[in-house]
From TrEMBL:
<dbReference type="Pfam" id="PF00694">
    <property type="entry name" value="Aconitase_C"/>
</dbReference>
<dbReference type="InterPro" id="IPR015928">
    <property type="entry name" value="Aconitase/3IPM_dehydase_swvl"/>
</dbReference>
<feature type="domain" description="Aconitase A/isopropylmalate dehydratase small subunit swivel">
    <location>
        <begin position="49"/>
        <end position="86"/>
    </location>
</feature>
<dbReference type="InterPro" id="IPR000573">
    <property type="entry name" value="AconitaseA/IPMdHydase_ssu_swvl"/>
</dbReference>
<protein>
    <recommendedName>
        <fullName>Aconitase A/isopropylmalate dehydratase small subunit swivel domain-containing protein</fullName>
    </recommendedName>
</protein>
Length: 160
């Protein structure tokens, strides 16, 4: 049985720039932090020092430009933003509409992001939807083990 995620997320936008690389998520001075909570306390501290405070105040939906998460693959960068669901939109005007502190909602039933009085369609792959429905990769791995990707990519009733 899938993990029951809310079908609609609502929050405030926190706008970041373009080309936010993994070193910005978590700088090497804090790479020794092991617990996820500790990693999150240092997230973006050098490039966006107000990020953690703003997130704690309700700016909890990140809107970033091109190449968010580019750079070296670092476990610390991933754990610093644990739970982040990446949605790529083709309509770049979302970036202009999603100013800091703006109300933003993501409707997973209709695949629409709403911000600034405008709606923006997005797509999730079958695997992204399945992972989301199971509460993320860690939760799905606990349930399916090494069969995770086979199960996540399998066609569902009526699909493909």
């Amino acid at each position: 049985m899938p993990f029951l995620q809310p079908r609609r997320w609502q929050g405030k936008s926190k706008k970041l720039g373009e080309f936010i690389d993994t070193d910005a998520h978590q700088r090497n001075s804090s790479w020794t932090c092991k617990p996820n909570e500790s990693s999150g306390q240092h997230c973006l501290q050098y490039t966006h020092p107000d990020f953690r405070h703003r997130a704690s105040q309700g700016c909890d939906i990140v809107v970033a430009g091109k190449a968010f998460g580019c750079g070296p693959s670092r476990e610390q960068a991933v754990t610093a933003l644990l739970g982040l669901l990446g949605i790529v939109l083709q309509d770049e005007s979302l970036y202009d509409a999603a100013l800091d502190d703006r109300d933003i909602s993501i409707d997973f039933a209709t695949n629409v992001v709403s911000v600034g009085g405008r709606d923006f369609a997005f797509r999730l792959s079958r695997m992204e939807k399945a992972l989301f429905e199971h509460g993320g990769i860690a939760s799905a791995f606990r349930k399916f083990g090494k069969r995770l990707f086979e199960v996540m990519a399998a066609p569902r009733g009526g699909e493909g």
